[in-house]
Amino acid sequence: MNNKLENALNRLNLILPLKKNQDKCSPEIKEVHQQMLRSFVTKGRILTREEMALWVDDVPEAINVLSQYDMVTFSESGEPVGAYPCTMMAREHKVHVNGHQIHAMCVWMP
Question: How would residue 6 be classed by pLDDT, with cut points 50, 70 and 90?
Answer without folding.
Answer: confident
